[in-house]
Amino acid sequence: MGRFSRITNAMAFRELAKARLPAPMFHYIDGGGDDEWTLRRNTEAFFGYELVPHYLVDVSSIDMSTKLFGTTLDLPFFLSPTGMSRLFHHDKEPAVARAADNFGTMYSLSTLATTSIEDVAAIGTSPKMFQIYVFKDRELTRELIQRCKAAGYTSLCLTVDVPIAGNRERDTHTGMTMPPKFSLGSLASFALHPHWALNLLREPNFQIANVVQRIDALKNNTMSLIQYVNTQIDQSLNWDDAAWMIEEWGGPFAIKGLQSANDAKRAVEVGASAIMISNHGGRQLDGVPAPVDCIQPMRAAVGDALELIVDGGVRRGTHVLKALALGADACSFGRPYLYALAAGGQAGVERMLTLMQAELSRDMKMLGVTSIDEVKANGAYVQRLMS
């Protein structure tokens, strides 16, 4: 445990991250859209459900593994795609991928990653997911898909809830915009965090690694690359585009960002194999449902035709159990591992996963279940909190 011995839960890394990161970088992780109601609600909604323990059960041995996307994960949660990890730690995406591999769970690489598809694919043997957008330049989209096939990624995830960036007012205040407009306070914050700045100077090669080769004229101008990608997001994206991408990929395929039962039905119709129930961590449209509240309507609408993944607000082992008992197949999360990455690189992420794993094991035993399949079997382990 070492320097993280006093960290007792996943979110305790938040304060360490806040201390280590310049303000613009911390608030880029921490913030949400508009009034941040949805950001808060994503976790608070879990408090609307109670776990129902069953006792006099032999829990001396438990199995936390689950099947997802045609493969087996050692844990019923995995690490969501998040962009530009180099902003938060100089070991960037590989540190997170190695930690996930050491715990036998899946890492999801973002299109906006600062490490290439191929470099992440070469890390360990655990399954990998790639998160992708439908770009105006369909050849760029097709190229990314073909690279994922060649590199051995096991699943693809299409993000659909970003036709335009959300109104993230914290980023406006700190100047973490594209292009950046840092305030005097933000510039002072960089000066007050020399460890972060020194590591940036030691490794200044900051690229949006999976699109840089498409824009020769921009070379290593990272801000211009980000602006280029933003202009490539296709606001005309529709279900036909999703169907085209599913056919182009030809393997396990998740649509990330859906929140309604009707959209879940459409996902079945176009051939998706999973939905990541998500509101982009509360960073897009404020005032939308928390993912945990969407599970039961979606499950009722699609039956067993889709795998449902709760992506948003998951901070505890009990949150995972509630989501599974309500009908989800797995959970995923981004902020907890980004805080841990910022606090201590791979070691931080591994400590965070250790805590989540230990919580889940302990909580399963206290709930009276010995396997993840048992939690998901019949809804007997959860009930809505009576108001």
Report on the structure:
The strands form 3 sheets. The protein has an 8-stranded parallel beta sheet with strand order 4-11-10-9-8-7-6-5. A two-stranded antiparallel ribbon has the order 1-12. It has a two-stranded antiparallel ribbon with strand order 2-3. 44% of the residues lie in helices and 12% in strands. It has helices at 13-20, 23-30, 37-44, 92-102, 117-121, 138-151, 169-174, 184-191, 194-202, 222-232, 239-249, 261-270, 291-302, 317-326, 335-367, 372-376; strands at 49-51, 66-68, 71-73, 77-79, 107-109, 128-132, 155-159, 253-256, 274-277, 307-311, 330-333, 382-384. It has 387 residues and is an alpha/beta fold. The model has no long low-confidence stretch (mean pLDDT 92). The protein contains 16 helices and 12 strands. It has a single domain (2-384), classed as TIM Barrel. β5 (107-109), α5 and β6 form a beta-alpha-beta unit.
Instruction: Extract low-pLDDT stretches.
Output: none
Q: What is the top-level CATH class?
A: Alpha Beta
Percent of residues in beta strands? 5-15%
Coarse structural class: alpha/beta
Relevant CATH superfamily: Aldolase class I
Q: Counting H and I runs of at least 4 residues, what is the number of helices?
A: 16
Anisotropy-based shape: globular
Beta strand count: 12
At the fold tier of CATH, the topology name is: TIM Barrel
The helix/strand series, from N terminus to C terminus, equals HHHEEEEHEHEHEHHHHHEHEHEHEHHE
- Which strand order spans the largest sheet, edge to edge or round the barrel? 4-11-10-9-8-7-6-5
Beginning-to-end CA distance, first to last residue:
41 Å
**What is the mean pLDDT?**
92
Sheet of most strands: 8 strands, parallel
Q: How many domains is the backbone divided into? A: 1
Percent helix range: 40-55%
Radius of gyration: 20 Å
CATH architecture: Alpha-Beta Barrel
